[in-house]
Amino acid sequence: IPPYQGVVVEVKRDTTVEELAQRYKANPQDIIDFNYLFADEDGVFRIRAGQVVTVPSYKYLTENFPNRWLYQPYGNCGPVSLRWPAVSRSITQYYSIWHPAIDIDTVGDEPLFAVADGVVVNVGSPTQWNYGYGGVVFIAIDGTGYKVAYGHMSRIFVEIGQRVSAGQTIGIAGATGRAFGDHVHFELICNGRKINPLPYLMR
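RESULT FIELD:
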């Protein structure tokens, strides 16, 4: 059984991802990620007449796995407890096959925080594509095999090699890269594998 339900749609007229999402009561970022769509030069995600896209949903997950943790942690990085990375607690997209991360809704110039003590190991400028991340920060967590990533940031306050402490502000959320609306794309990486961060985050 696939970990999602969805509808395959052949678009009859030019439309936007937002309009399609409203029509099917779906999440626009789900449609973007699942179909690997790109925004036009004006920043709007459009779908052309005749294009076939899948509109995925979490109906199967929410009805059969209420905690939405279908994809459990794996790897051998060991236990770790992480602080919440943003002010907002609203999750707009959960971990899945096509989206190995969680998206947390943000409002305005919302700060993002280091989830644990660690070292900044990579930084991508908000003005660059960076494989769709836009502005991105990777932090290696002290004493573990874990790294965390924060994507779509509008401003970054840290640099490669810098030590950070849990709770320290590392930047500002945004919608850079391949993003629909302001949010932080948060990944937990164990030995190179992206795993579900929710079981590790203290809410």
